Amino acid sequence: MESLEILILYDNSSADPNIRADWGFSALIRTGARNILFDTGADATILLANMKYLNVPASTINTIFISHHHFDHTGALSTFLHAQPHAEIFIPQSLRGLRRPEHIFHIDGEYNFDEDIYSTGELKGIEQSLFIQTPAGFVLIAGCSHPGLEYILPVVEKHGHIHALIGGLHGFNDYRLLADIDYVCPTHCTRHIAEIAGRYPDKYLPGGAGRQYRFPNKK
Ligand SMILES: [Zn+2]
Ligand SMILES: [Zn+2]
Asked: From ligand 1's centre to the CA of 67, what distance in Å?
C-alpha cells in the first residue's frame, strides 16, 4: 500500500498526560482497507479510555490481530469484542478458548491476509508478528518478540527490505540485527531502549501510548 499509519493506543509509557500508561501493548494500524487493532493491552477500561481520547471508535476496527496469549496483549480482548463483535480476528494457533467471535482465524504458518499484509505465522509455538508492504519496504509490528528477532526478521527479509520495526523487543541485545532496518521504535517490554537509541540515533523513534507514525517515514 502507498502508506500506513500506526497509532500506539496502549503502552508501558505514555506520550501525553491525558493518555494512561500501563504494562501492555496495543496499536491501531490504518492501512486504508483495514483498521487493525494489534493486541489489546491488559485492561479494557484503559484501552477504551485511550481510544476515546485518541478519537478511535471501536466500531471503526474491522480487524483484530493478536500476537500471543500473554495477558498484557489479550486482557482487554473479550470486553472489546462486546463493543465490536464483527471484526475479523487473527490469532495464533495455540490461543484457544475465544467463544464470541464470528470471524476467527487461527494462524499457524506464514499467512497472507491481503495483497500487502502478512503474518510471520506462530514462531516457536508462541507468537506471530505482522508485516505490511509499503513502497519503502516492509513495516514489521511485534508484540514482545518472544521467539527472538533472529527468528522473526528472516521471515520478513525473505520477502524484501524492512523499512521499520515497531513494538516490544523484550531482552533483545544483538543490535547488529537492526543495521539494515531504516527505523526502529522499541517500546513496551523492550529492556534496552536506551542502548538502541544510543547506537542508532537516526533510526530511533520513541514509543509510548499516543505516538503516531506514518510509513514510509521521511527523515
Ligand atoms: Zn509476552
Ligand atoms: Zn508483553
From this structure: 9
